[in-house]
Specification:
single chain; mainly alpha; 78% helix; 0% strand; globular
């Protein structure tokens, strides 16, 4: 099993796209195994992508693309500012609330960071925030936002582990609110440059902001009301989100042109193709690791070390932080799931709980200096150096990590809402 992993690492070092690196490393491993036909590559590639649930991916990506420039993100930010901008912490509070609102629609962490950051970072710099601190707040809030459904990570995790995507969506809400609350408290206690509260907006002004953002705010209600009410599946909800975003941005807000719509379709196709190639490549490598009994060997090692469920959870968090930062979110998850999920199942850890912990860690790792992929999306909008933004970001990530450990050690935080809605165990 060493050869395919070394081949994969070499491909990554040579800047080969992750999907091809995963598949290429696995193909080399299969070639070195005696008696294994290489046509398994084709069958595993097709089998990996032949899933109805994966249809949600392009539609959620398209919805995020349409909302990023379709007038929806800007209106959500204005509404968030009217509600919490006057509280100590100022525009930092606005970023956290706006990220929760936008994350609940777009499904993509990168889209969240780009959409909210492109509006908020210039505004924060005008109010006295340094570029580094403004970028750090946006990065931390985007990392928190990955827990707010819909989430592409939850769609992929649910599909490959046969866990209910609707249950994962419901399970993400309370952990997301806990992490957002922790960030708001952190901002309130911190103070510092630019953290001056905005002028309080009158209730009439808040009403106008609510009306202006009303069509945007209606979308998450439609998505989750439909899913939780049994009207449509998460995959069908993704289609509803894309169609609604197109109608709201094009007909109601009149900010989506045919040229922009075409660019959004192209970007959606490119991103979806990259994700599905990663899914296919990871599926081949997962099959190889299963055949080579890697999960069983690792399980025996963990059992020998001891620590039980809690020890395995801590070990998982540490490994996830490193792998998700190195390999981005979804490809890292696709590599780790075949190894770690069987062990979690053997230890009696609920896969719904494990998926939310994995997602929470992923949000931190995506922005973890100096290698987090998402960090560089934000860095490009700030004009700050990597060292400056890292100095401001690390304390926020520390707060988020503490909340993640709370989620890991107290699964009731994850199960409460799915249990109330009758989704746990589906």
């Amino acid at each position: 099993m060493i050869a395919p992993l070394l081949a994969f690492a070499a491909f990554v070092a040579l800047a080969v796209p992750i999907g091809f690196a995963l598949g290429g490393g696995a193909a080399i491993g299969l070639w070195l195994m005696e008696g294994v036909p290489l046509d398994i590559v084709a069958s595993r590639t097709f089998g990996a992508m032949d899933s109805f649930t994966f249809l949600a991916i392009p539609f959620f990506i398209l919805a995020g693309e349409l909302m990023e420039t379709g007038g929806i993100s800007r209106r959500l930010i204005v509404f968030a500012s009217s509600m919490v901008g006057h509280i100590k912490g100022g525009l930092g509070n606005v970023v956290v609330l706006a990220m929760m609102l936008f994350s609940g629609i777009s499904g993509s962490t990168n889209a969240d960071a780009a959409a909210v950051g492109s509006v908020m970072i210039p505004s924060m710099k005008e109010r006295g925030y340094s570029g580094a601190r403004a970028g750090a707040i946006v990065a931390a809030a985007a990392g928190m936002g990955i827990l707010v459904p819909p989430c592409l990570t939850m769609v992929v995790y649910g599909s490959v582990t046969n866990t209910s995507v609707a249950a994962l969506f419901a399970a993400g809400f309370l952990p997301a609110f806990a992490m957002a609350g922790a960030l708001l408290v952190h901002l309130r206690l911190q103070g510092g440059d630019g953290a001056v509260p905005e002028p309080r907006v009158s209730w009439a002004g808040r009403g106008r902001a609510l009306l202006d953002a009303g069509w945007a705010l209606l979308l998450p209600a439609i998505i989750f009301g439909g899913i939780l009410g049994g009207i449509f599946t998460p995959t069908e909800a993704a289609v509803v989100a894309a169609v609604y975003a197109m109608l709201a941005g094009g007909l109601l807000y009149r900010e989506i042109t045919l040229a922009f719509f075409w660019r959004a379709l192209v970007r959606t196709g490119v991103t979806t193709g990259a994700v599905m190639l990663m899914v296919a490549g990871a599926n081949i490598l997962a099959w190889l690791m299963t055949v080579e009994q890697v999960p069983q060997s690792l399980a025996q090692l963990i059992a020998a070390v001891g620590g039980g469920k809690l020890g395995f959870m801590v070990f998982s968090v540490v490994v996830f932080l490193v792998i998700f930062a190195l390999l981005d979110g979804i490809p890292g998850m696709l590599m780790l799931v075949p190894v770690f999920v069987p062990i979690a199942r053997e230890l009696g850890i609920d896969l719904l709980h494990y998926g939310i912990v994995m997602t929470s860690v992923m949000g931190i790792a995506l922005f973890m200096p100096p290698i987090g992929v998402g960090l560089y999306i934000v860095l490009g909008m700030t004009g700050a150096s990597l060292g400056d933004i890292s100095r401001h970001l690390l304390p926020y990530l520390g707060t988020m990590l503490l909340v993640t450990l709370l989620i890991a050690f107290f699964p009731a935080l994850v199960f409460l809402l799915p249990d109330m809605l009758g989704l746990h165990g589906q």
